[in-house]
Amino acid sequence: MSYRIPLHKRFVDAESGWCVRLNRICRGRPTRGFFAVVSRLGDGMFWYALMAALVVLEGMAGLVASAHLAATGAIALGLYKLLKRWTRRPRPFAADLGIRAWVAPLDEFSFPSGHTLHAVAFSVVAVAHVPWVAWLVLPFTACVAVSRVVLGLHYPSDVLAATIIGSALAGLSLWVVSPWLALA
């Protein structure tokens, strides 16, 4: 008699396996330190510094970009908190003893990754306003996304969903403000 494993169960098992393997990357102190710093900067410090730098370097255009980033960030914060309360997905380290949380989480639930959602939304909006920042924000955003999984705080699907949500939010935000930006 053959037993068929449901697709959802196979997906969950595969994703947990990836989490365990990626989490092991942080066993080395330099790697763990790097991703911990990236994660901490992704808490907001990097983005606040970027907004301040844009105002200094780009003048009024930087101020407009920073205001747009702040508004997008506020909406992203409300959206991700709502989704976390609604989904209540346990974090990988809470669901699997083979996964260690290498840094303390900011909240209880996993889905979606708020760090990734914000990083993607901020990157898209920032690059739309000031294209030369792409060399800085895009690699940083990729490191933030990877850090969430290797630090044991998120599943890859949390990060993927956050990437999609952050991209959609940024796209909608740019669409909404584009008539006013054309006037500036």
Automatic annotation (TrEMBL):
SMART domains reported for this sequence: acidPPc
Please write the reaction equations for the catalytic activity of this protein: di-trans,octa-cis-undecaprenyl diphosphate + H2O = di-trans,octa-cis-undecaprenyl phosphate + phosphate + H(+)
Q: Give the highest taxon in the source lineage.
A: Bacteria
UniProt xrefs under SUPFAM superfamilies: Acid phosphatase/Vanadium-dependent haloperoxidase
What are the record keywords, sorted?
Cell membrane, Hydrolase, Membrane, Transmembrane, Transmembrane helix
Chain ranges of the Phosphatidic acid phosphatase type 2/haloperoxidase domain: 61-174
What membrane topology is annotated for this entry? Multi-pass membrane protein
Keyword Methyltransferase listed? The answer is no
A Gene Ontology term for the protein's cellular component: plasma membrane
Report the GO molecular function annotations: undecaprenyl-diphosphatase activity
Q: Report the main location listed first in the record.
A: membrane
Localization of this protein? Cell membrane
**InterPro entries, per database record:** PAP2/HPO, PAP2/HPO_sf
Entry's EC annotation: 3.6.1.27
Which spans are transmembrane here? 34-57, 63-83, 119-147, 159-183
Q: What is this protein called?
A: undecaprenyl-diphosphate phosphatase
Q: What is the lineage of its organism?
A: Bacteria, Pseudomonadati, Pseudomonadota, Gammaproteobacteria, Lysobacterales
